[in-house]
């Protein structure tokens, strides 16, 4: 069933599910998925399955930038969701149904738990998270600064503890250091299951207060009850506890705050509150109200260039998402759209990322992205054309770069976009970063002709190791397979093939492998006499490592000697 529902930055309801899965129709569209993260419109008109997890998923949390984290029950207490499943499904030959979309990997250094009592009742995953639930990041300012937007809490009721994790960026991914416990107990009934940063800036925790947590294995001779769990009087379904965890030097910092009788103008001001609870509440109230009289104030918030100790501007960030929720960033309100475009240059990376996520998916927005210096576009106005190191041309923030790539993947095809992705992905820091690599694959597939034309002219770094070579080849194979399954690959395949003679072997072999694998059995291209003459010399001029893919392609085309004699 649905677990851990949240109002998200994008004004949708987010949740997680486990093995119980979901199968049904939402907004006229059929859905079927198991363990993972999803979101839906508050009115129930649409639903999107965002990311797959590995097992029962009971924890979900957002940091103050709107990044999405989760926890699973078994040996995976911390995951990070970066690239929604829809981008994988946009690649032809990549996905069939739910398969092909990755399961989120564990970002913590260990899944071990650290109880303070000797006898811990666990039926599996002994000594590790096995009933991990809740994933919550501290998002207020009452606690010491080391907690702000950085410390996450995951409950483990079987271990009678509340685990603590320190989050650190790791490229476009995250790393979670298992910092043992926020608190633990020797009481066998103590069973934490969830924490939240409260309206007062303290940490609130639910204690299920139960002796028997898990339902399996089933003891011989016992009666089966609801959910296939064995029946025992030690399952208490009537009592629980709520704890409020305070920082002793921060207790007096809280001042009573209430938006119930506030004006819309005061709601806008609350977008700057130091506690994310109040910021998201104010954002939701403004969106639910649905009136546009607050637009001038929201514009002012977005234009504010200040950043705090963490490099954030919460008011500008939530104002952008409020504008999106009010429906004025779809191109229908020119002033609002220009405010969002200017936010592509905001000093707070989270604001730039949000702007990339909310602007319309059209040519005007693509032009703004390519002009913003976020992606490597080695051109300047006029006749000049130059290339500088890709690392200097790109924004230094990986989350902004990732958001820009994902935006390009949903924009109209453009020669400059394909070239930009080719320039970007050749760089080791990008191709060796899983989420940048996967996003770039989707963006390259959207601009397949341009991307393949430019990437096949690139040379890989001289010091490229086996990991780099494997990753760049994977990108080439996926994009080339997508290209081969497209509407008209026959019109350009000859030029791509005879240009392989000049291509780097890693890139060239990746291209040929993808094309030969994806090319439809019934699609036989026709070539001019000049093209046939050029193709006929390929076997002679290409390394032997290409031969297997050449043979596969020639068999699909019904012409065994099209690339030259096999003898």
In short:
Helix content is 33%, strand content 17%. It has 567 residues and is α+β, with helices and mostly antiparallel strands.
Describe this structure as you would to a colleague.
The chain has 567 residues and is α+β, with helices and mostly antiparallel strands. 33% of the residues lie in helices and 17% in strands. The protein is built from 20 helices and 16 strands. Strands 1-2-5-6 form a 4-stranded antiparallel β-sheet, with no helix packed on it. The chain has a 4-stranded antiparallel β-sheet with strand order 10-11-12-13, with no helix packed on it. It has a 3-stranded antiparallel β-sheet with strand order 7-8-9, with no helix packed on it. Strand 3 and strand 4 form a beta hairpin. About 2% of the residues have low confidence.
Mean pLDDT: 92
Biggest β-sheet strands, sense, barrel? 4 strands, antiparallel
* Outline: globular
Give the N-to-C terminal Cα separation. Answer: 62 Å
The assigned structural class equals: alpha+beta
Sequence-ordered SSE layout with sheet pairings:
Elements: E1 3-7, E2 13-17, E3 22-26, E4 29-33, E5 36-40, E6 47-52, E7 57-62, E8 68-72, E9 79-81, H1 85-89, E10 133-137, E11 151-156, E12 161-170, E13 173-184, E14 192-197, E15 203-207, E16 241-245, H2 264-270, H3 276-289, H4 295-303, H5 314-325, H6 334-342, H7 349-358, H8 363-371, H9 390-393, H10 398-409, H11 415-425, H12 428-431, H13 434-446, H14 448-455, H15 466-484, H16 493-498, H17 505-518, H18 529-535, H19 538-541, H20 547-556
Antiparallel strand pairs: 1-2, 2-5, 3-4, 5-6, 7-8, 8-9, 10-11, 11-12, 12-13, 14-15, 15-16
Helix pairs in contact: 2-3, 3-5, 4-5, 4-6, 5-7, 7-10, 10-13, 11-13, 11-14, 13-14, 13-15, 15-17, 17-20
